[in-house]
Amino acid sequence: MKSFVIACGLAALVPAAAFAQAAPKPSLFEISDVDRDAVPAGTPAAFYVAFPNADRNEAARQVGEDSFSFVPLAFIPLSDTRVALVSTGANDCTGQACSGLNAVHYLDHPAGEPRYPFTLSGEWLDVGAAGVVGNPAQRWGWTRAIADAPVLYTEAGGTWQGRSCGYAVLTELKEAGPVEVARIPVYFSDASSDEAAAEVEGTITAVEKGRSLTVSYRGSGAFDETYRRGPDGVFRLQGESRVPAC
After folding, report:
1. Is 46 helix (H, G, I), strand (E, B) or coil?
2. Cβ(173)–Cβ(156) under 8 Å?
3. Contact 205/215 with Cβ under 8 angstroms?
4. Spatial separation of the C-alpha atoms in residues 25 and 23, rounded to whole Å
5. What number of CA atoms fall less than 13 Å from residue 130's CA on the CB side?
6. pTM beyond 0.85
7. Residue range 167-185, pLDDT digits in tens
8. What residues have CB less than 8 Å from 244, skipping those under 6 apart?
9. I need a surface site. Which of 62, 65, 79, 237 has the fewest CB within 10 A?
């Protein structure tokens, strides 16, 4: 009789376990919030080369019809004598239709750790993901696990009529310059919906270097989506994503 009671108790727990959400899979690499007030070690000398008119660690730059305020974000080593300086530019325009910019500068330097003197070898002022109301990237990271060259991860998004969407751009920092190789939805939330299944969040959790990458989602449901690299070097999802769009 006692064993029967225990068995019934265990059986009663099965449905609850079946509906419990699985633990989120860890991200393949570290992704951090962009902190525009922080000054990464070693960047001031490089930042002055990238933005000669910089006022300390901030530089104003006119791009098209808009004015942007750039600050240094990170160094990404490309070789023993070259580094990529990543900066984020906040737009003076803070309207819904105005976006920020992310900049990448390639800087050459003496062999070893990035150090002065730096020589500018390339500038790109519109790289990766940028948000609305004048915001540049909100989160960032980088990895060598996805492609032969380092890959910069930038994430941004916005809210439209109660629906919030976030996306990530992967930019391969090739020798000739940055190249966008993937654009991935990583967040969706619908505050206007009464449904409990109105939010998903995704992270890159696995990769077959140079061939494919997997994005794992959690929230309203748990599922994976795999992006495969084409002959042009771009990672694309085959078919439609299960992540709703704004």
Report:
1. helix
2. no
3. yes
4. 6
5. 24
6. yes
7. 999 999 999 999 999 999 9
8. 163, 188, 190, 200
9. 65
